[in-house]
Specification:
- 48% of the residues lie in helices and 8% in strands.
- It has helices at 13-24, 51-56, 62-67, 77-95, 99-105, 108-117, 125-139, 143-152, 159-163, 183-193, 221-230, 232-237, and strands at 3-6, 34-35, 42-44, 69-74, 175-179.
- The strands form two sheets. It has a three-stranded parallel β-sheet. Strands 2-3 form a two-stranded antiparallel ribbon.
- Strand 2 and strand 3 form a beta hairpin.
Length: 243
């Protein structure tokens, strides 16, 4: 089976990655995140690497891109934004008690965050403090404020950007999409296409709490319009709707 799975956050990528590694001999393309020389900044994420970065830093080459299918999960943006918001607030509630003391002591925040949220960022203290500040900021926001913040963020790659090779590579990759809304059935169908007649069962991991209310109830007219505009291409491409 020749394919590369690219993981995008809050789209079931942890479940799929574990499924492929534990059942079919999958391996991480990056053994660990690629960091800057001072170890303060993650340049290429181990878990959420973009195709352009894998090629730019030579984790894969053009020949691999020719012979391997790219597998990637997708999810209704309206649902995903609610999941991201609730996930951040949930993690904050788990790490908030005593966190200020841990920040002063040094390495504790990383280990706390890793335990409750399955992060993989190495032990960089600067990353732990940044992550804590982000969680605290999101926790203080209403959902409407959070959507407005998401609408202003410019450095989040679109699906097209996530799959786009560097400018000097003209190969158009073959892409297979797995819908989060149909995650198990789609991954089973994908494996059957590759000769696995009886795929093993998929286990869900890193799941946001299940008792949240329907995502539609989070939105007002303004927040709905922001998400419709920001993710218009993805919504149109995969026929997603608000309802």
């Amino acid at each position: 089976m020749r394919f590369i799975f690219l993981g995008r956050p809050k789209r079931g990528c942890t479940a799929v990655a574990h499924y492929l590694i534990e059942n079919y001999g999958g391996e991480w393309v990056l053994p660990r995140p690629k960091r800057s020389l001072l170890q303060r900044k993650v340049i290429v994420s181990k878990k959420h690497a973009m195709l352009s970065d894998l090629l730019k830093y030579q984790y894969i080459d053009e020949e691999t891109l020719k012979t391997h299918t790219i597998l990637i999960t997708i999810r209704n943006p309206f649902d995903r934004i609610v999941s991201t918001y609730e996930h951040s607030r949930h993690i904050y509630s788990l790490v908030e008690p005593g966190i200020e003391k841990r920040l002063i002591l040094g390495g504790w925040p990383y280990f706390t965050l890793q335990k409750v949220s399955n992060f993989d960022r190495g032990t960089a203290y600067s990353w732990a403090t940044w992550q804590w500040n982000r969680l605290r900021k999101v926790n203080a926001m209403s959902f409407s404020e959070y959507v407005q913040y998401i609408g202003r963020v410019k450095n989040q790659p679109s699906l097209t950007g996530f799959l786009k090779p560097p400018p000097d590579i003209k190969i158009v990759p073959t892409v297979k999409y797995i819908r989060y809304e149909n995650l198990a059935e789609d991954i089973y169908a994908f494996m059957k296409e590759r000769g696995i007649t009886h795929p093993k069962s998929l286990s869900y991991v890193n799941v946001t709490r299940k008792n949240k209310r329907p995502y539609q109830e989070y939105y007002d007219d303004d927040s709905r319009r922001i998400i419709e505009q920001k993710y218009a291409d993805e919504i149109k491409q995969f026929n997603y709707t608000f309802n």
